[in-house]
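Practice problem: Tonoplast dicarboxylate transporter
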Amino acid sequence: MSGEQRGSVEEQQKGMKAPLLPVQDSASHSSNQQVMTLKSFLTLKNLYIILGPLLSLLICLLVKLKDAPASSVKMLAVIAWVFAWWVTEAVPLPVTSLCPLFLFPLFGIGSADSVAHSYMDDVITLVLGSFILALAVERYNVHRRLALNVTLLFCGDPLNPAMLLMGLCATTFFVSMWLHNVAAAVMMMPVATGILQRLPPPSEQSEAVNKFSRAVVLTVVYATPIGGISTLTGTGVNLILIGMWKSLVPGAKPISFSTWFFYGFPVAAVLLIAFWCIMCSLYVQKGSARALSAYLEKAHLRRDLEALGPMSFAEKMVLSVFGVSVRLNSNSNSLILFTKALI
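Answer key — structure tokens:
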């Protein structure tokens, strides 16, 4: 065997004897591991998680309410726990919203069965059904077809930005009359963005186009709660008021859908017109029609609408469900049963 071959064999043997990983002292390794474990535990998020139970424990031990039932202190402790997690977002907000489901039985405030029934209250069922309907509208592109039709109907020839805002106000107002405020905003915001997508990016917009873009978004934001005033089902606050009216004044005549509508609709209509006038005075400039006409021409809008093709079966079914929900709004009991069937 030559000298070179003998040297290579010795190097291979040394390499086989060498450890694959660096050797550390076992004591130093365990101490480093403990420090790393402690650091990974003492994070800000974990401290926020501990904060909720800690506040609850301190309230139960230190707070004494005179002339109040024993469950009052426990209820205050639960509120502190949920509030701490809600503000700090120590856990996801949906998890925080479900905390009473296990905290009430844990503190002896209420049974799990009664708390679970509260989570499926009629008002919550109605709101959940509205959300499902709004998601279906967005899922099957009904909002894009609605945006193009609203723009075509109200933009005018030549283009009139004020009338376009009025059309968006009226459409949002009408949808919000029959759906919950948040669900109506979820449904109508894609309609607003569908209009904004036809405009150039913000960095390339003129002052008139930029102001109109902000007006489109604000129209959906503010016209939604205005429309919710019109009907009982327009917002959850109206339904809560009806529930309080029944419990606080049991002998009084109940507030029906028609009674509320004849009171709320005129007020909401006046507010909507006032809001539209304010938006036009603040965000619609004199030269905005000329600046927007290049992006919102009727010929382009008709071409985009034709590109969508005929309405699909899914779109027709979504609109049918929406029409049925509008029809059943005159009977609140039927509407609640219908929204439960949606879920």
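Discussion: Confidence is low (pLDDT under 50) at residues 333-340. Students who identified this feature from the tokens alone can consider the problem solved.
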